[in-house]
Amino acid sequence: MEYHLVVVWSEEKGWRVDWESTIARFQGHNVYSPNLGEWLMPVHDSETGDKEVELAGQLDEAFKKLNN
Fold this sequence. Notes:
Blueprint: E1 2-3, E2 7-10, E3 14-17, H1 19-26, E4 31-33, E5 38-40, H2 47-67
């Protein structure tokens, strides 16, 4: 599985995930399954939803360090 998120850097806010742009760009289907050849929507309390939350948390931690 590939999780696609829009990442933005600005002078005002530094690094961050832009969730509004991610949703708009991928229309909510931001997980790509190479095996199936299709885009999936991460669903709350599912494997894809849980993984997205985990990855977003990791990015937030990395961005906090980069922004300091």
